[in-house]
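Field reference: "sequence" (input) and "structure" (output). Example, Acetolactate synthase:
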Amino acid sequence: MKQISGNKLLVKALKEEGVDVLFGYPGACTIDISDELYKQSGIDIILPRHEQALVHEADAYARTTGKVGVCLVTSGPGATNLVTGLATANYDSVPLVCFTGQVARHLIGNDAFQEVDIVGITRSITKYGVTVRNREDLGRIIKEAFYIARTGRPGPVLIDLPKDVMAELGNAEYPKTVNIRGYKPNTSVHIGQLKRALKMLQKAKKPLFLAGGGVIISRAQEIFTQVVEKTQIPVVTTVMGRGAISTKNPLFIGNLGMHGAYAANMAVNECDLLFSIGTRFNDRITGKLHEFAPHAQIVHIDIDTASISRNIHVDIPIVADAKEAITKMAEYVQECNTGKWLKQIREWKEEHPLTMKDRGIMGPLDIIGEINRQFDKAILVTDVGQHQMLVSQYADITENRQLIMSGGLGTMGYGLPGAIGAKIGNPDTPVISVSGDGGMQMNIQELATAVLEELPIICCIFNNEYLGMVRQWQKLFYGKRYAMTNLKAGALSRRTDGQEYPEYTPDFIRLAESYGAKGIRVTEKDQIAAAFEEAKKNTKTPTIIEFIIDPEEMVYPMVKPGGTLADLIMDC
């Protein structure tokens, strides 16, 4: 039987798994794999400028295409630079398969050059991780990795590849099937439990759907919308679930949680049945756990058994894939008597509409409103901070729009590489990233990747000269002591006791141009529309649009720290 090296088998495996894009950064322990990839055609190799950005790019590629994102990095620092991205993907249930180089087996454990126990380091933030110790196990392990990454609750898998194992000759066959003892993801819905839940739904006077990221991950938006419209039950979403139903649908109330809409938070507080699908009930949406949805019985559908009743005790647990469960629901649901309940929700919306105070100067709402007007179809990618919450509040997410972000981990630096990965996976769809001036600088080197890959992404920077979200907390709860949040601070401000500051650095426009990208600075409302129109003309070049934002712009509503969903700060 023909024998081939482990390096050749890896390339063969990638092709059989349908991989068409690989995000990779080379090194001594992966140079032979890089050489094999060089000899093949059919898999596009993307060379980013940093491994953390690389894994975010693969992450966004996976989120927006439904495929598994694939990474290849070298051992030691190459591998450890994946850690933040693996944790990001783990929290947000993103299917990744990450291959890390490793020193030869006889050097493992001897503090060899660029040797780390990356499997041990990442054990708590990956769905599965393993070092391949025997060449004959390589094909099986790769097959299992892709299966584990994409099934059940999706997540990142890490495969560590010792250099000598990959050089060794062995079987050329790649397995066709997977059979993992102890890993049998649930693929069915318990009809008895589901019917019990739907009976409760029919009897409830104030029923409410809570849709989380699981609805998006399972691509269940269309069938979920049908269920909602058939039952006439209102919907709130988590930030990760925004888009589970069009934000323009009259039955959509808004996001709930720390920066949720007043009507959405009040609906959760007053409902008598909370029918939740695909959410972990994390602290950002619950507030005080013992006062969350105090009047409601709770139904929880989730593919991950461990997520059910972990934070919030539920009355009816249903372990199932969101789309499978919602599809079954569609067969049984009937219209519910929600007229009075919907009237109450409309009154809450009128009493406290989700809006921003018009301060007479250009603000985030003007920018997001222009994005809504100019881009009927788009993928929006945010970084992390005030701008992220504002986009999650005000961006229209419809059938033609997708919103992605680092939700569970809150990873600054996700925005630009996320936009790159999304555009590579969706070349015909406009991709717009929104970052703060702080987050943008965490992976700004990826402008080189975007330029060289000829990606016409539009990168919006909300520049308020501060780390805005932390500054907001400092303003509200720390007596306006803006410690470590002023991005102009340095030697000059220390020398002058905070009386003098230099010009903002960097000059984002000149920096963009130095990379070969287009740069536009916007300081007034009447410049916004023209800036986006100009950016759309660049069909092979990324565009940075820097919006100069007042540092006093705040994100409201906001739940008070340690408060309930009803403890909302509406404005200051």
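The first helix runs from residue 6 to 16.
The chain is about 35% helix and 15% strand.
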